[in-house]
Amino acid sequence: MLTGSDHNGRTYNLHGGLLTQSELADYLNKAFGSELVYRPMSFEDFKADRIAELGEFIGTVIAGIYQGIREGASDRPSGFEAAAGRPHQSWDDYFSSI
């Protein structure tokens, strides 16, 4: 990408497949032998928890990011393969290599 001009002016989202928080906890447990448990929370409960932990300003910002993620604000197609010339490594392959 740095030495050619094929990608000039292009912007890529470079990420793998979408992963839920529950799936992430399962992968981490398998990879590290941990016992993480994903507990879904309502937005209101999460916001109250973050504000209690981080203060009004940062807690509200973090809660807003969380809500955006839940509503799909980051669900965009990946341009990884177009940029790298190969498919992104699967989550199964990634976590089994740890």
SSE inventory with pairings:
Elements: H1 21-32, H2 43-54, H3 56-70, H4 80-84, H5 91-96
Helix pairs in contact: 2-3
What does the model show?
The protein has 98 residues and is mainly α. It contains 5 helices and no strands. The chain has helices at residues 21-32, 43-54, 56-70, 80-84, 91-96. The radius of gyration is 18 Å and the shape is flat. The mean pLDDT is 91.
How would you summarize this macromolecular structure in one to three sentences?
With 98 residues, the chain is mostly helical. The protein has one domain (21-96). 51% of the residues lie in helices and 0% in strands.
Shape type? flat
Number of domain units:
1
Contiguous runs where pLDDT drops below 50 for at least 5 residues: none
**Main structural class:** mainly alpha
Average pLDDT: 91
Largest sheet: none
Distance between the termini: 28 Å
**Helical amount:** 40-55%
Helix segment tally: 5
Strand content: under 5%
- Seen as an oligomer or otherwise, the chain set is single chain
What is the CA-based Rg, rounded?
A: 18 Å
Total number of strands: 0
Secondary-structure element string: HHHHH
Task: Pick out its properties.
mainly alpha; 5 helices
